[in-house]
Amino acid sequence: MTNDILWVIPARGGSKGIPGKNIKPLAGKPLIGYSIEVARAFASDEHICLSTDDPAIARVAEDSFGLKVPFLRPAELATDRSGTYGVLLHALDFYAAQGKNYCTLVLLQPTSPFRTVDDVQRAIDLYSPDIDMVVTVKEAATNPYYNAFEEDENGFLHISKGEGRYTRRQDAPKVWEYNGAVYVINVASLRRMTLGEFPRRRLCEMPASHSVDLDTPIDWLVAEMLINNSK
């Protein structure tokens, strides 16, 4: 375990796609429990921050998992339009006010219950202080060189990238999409710019089976099916 990493699990209370999803039981366990358990494989509780605006989520974390929630997130960081950037800075500032200044932050979204300890370890191993972030990805479902199109000013479709000459997907350049599971972030970089502005991002590939992100009721059904099939 290392003491210079802050582990942040952001869990807002106002989910619309899956109401109450952060504490909804998945295979008998509240969803936030999966991320708490992964974080505990690397850090003691004093370095794990569950950032929430919802007393019900805080209560589940404390009563069901014994994780003390250090604060309730202010209302302005708990709306539909609140970005992760402000949430992370708020957490860092909270600990800095207590004299705890972290060099690295690991963000674990609670909506990625299939992320494993090995996935997180591989991301950490790829990180170094001379880059801005390591982020987990999966191969993108749509490839802009092959089957992603844009509409031009005349209303016609054209390939998003390149000249549209690839006839087989496997010949097109490989492209990636964030899977939302693990972000290993340089705190100095985060204090200078948003995550989207980082110029030095390194990927850590995760398999599709670990990359399920729970955003809609269909996603939840897929997650339950995967769990049932693994038993």
Question: Any overview of this molecule?
Answer:
The chain is α/β, with parallel strands linked by helices and 231 residues long. It folds into two domains: 5-138 and 176-230, Alpha-Beta Complex (Spore Coat Polysaccharide Biosynthesis Protein SpsA, Chain A); 141-174, no CATH class. 27% of the residues lie in helices and 21% in strands. The chain is built from six helices and ten strands. A six-stranded mixed sheet has the order 4-1-5-9-6-10, sandwiched between helices. Strand 2 (25-26) and strand 3 (29-30) form a beta hairpin. The longest helix has 14 residues, at 217-230.
How many strands?
A: 10
Widest sheet: strand order? Answer: 4-1-5-9-6-10
Strand content: 15-25%
Q: So how many helices?
A: 6
Helix content: 25-40%
In N-to-C order, the SSE pattern is EEEHEHHEHEEEEHEH
Largest β-sheet summary: 6 strands, mixed
CATH-scheme architecture of the largest domain: Alpha-Beta Complex
Mean pLDDT, to the nearest integer, reads: 94
Please identify the top-level CATH class of the largest domain.
Alpha Beta
Radius of gyration: 19 Å
Q: End-to-end distance, in Å?
A: 31 Å
> How many discrete domains?
2
* Poorly predicted ranges: none
Task: Look at the structure and name the CATH superfamily of the largest domain.
Answer: Spore Coat Polysaccharide Biosynthesis Protein SpsA, Chain A
Cα shape: globular
**Structural class from helices and strands?**
alpha/beta
